[in-house]
Fold this protein.
Amino acid sequence: MKESAQNLNTEKKGLKPVIRKIYDCLLGSYGPQGWWPLTELRESGGKNPTKTGSIQGYHPADYTYPQTRNQQFEIICGALLTQNTSWIQVEKALLNLKDILSLKQTHSFSPEVILSLDPEVLKEAIRPAGYYNQKAVRLKDLACWFSELEDRIPARKELLSLKGVGPETADSILLYAFKQPSFVVDAYTKRIVTNLGLVDEKAGYNEIKALFEENLPEDLAVYQEYHALLVEHAKRYYQKKSIWTNDEILKCIL
């Protein structure tokens, strides 16, 4: 098995079919993932296709979301809140915010409402997501930024200039909130490509990002699904502190 994984570490010109084969294998195994989950869809019948994320709110094979400015902003909030925690905890924080919003006679996430919240109320609402003091300040900063953005699509460099927004958060915002093909690399992605021998263990974010972007069509649906599928696969087969090779992926791509 170790030799098989090492064989995947081919020359760059040979990587493209491997990257695509992995995608086809994962999509065939798990189906469309329907990321990014939205609380609005959770309440109106959105579903969870895989049972390892939130209970509802996904929209498998429907790439029209976000459809509103407030849905965009909710995704941006979620991208920030999910730093250093699980999505289940983020969902709790978002639902807490929804409860507060309902008291203000609105059920939609808007930057204006977040800006109007008392800082202590905001902190308590997002407590489940951890680092709530820091994240509350950064949510306010993002709300202020987004309220002035209007209909413009931000550049990645602009997002990275915002306090608290690193490469993964910036790419998540671009890919899911603004529908821009910018591949998201997270810890799960790195574990999988490292374990398969596609990159060195010391490979940085940009190197892994380039591995996918240089070997995939610039297709929004593919970028969204691939990231979500890697997360789903890693949750099923890769433990937090140790890496396990999944035979099925190797059978699929070798």
Q: What stands out?
A: The chain has a mean pLDDT of 87. The two ends are 11 Å apart (CA to CA). The first helix runs from residue 2 to 7. Residues 44 and 174 are 25 Å apart (CA to CA).
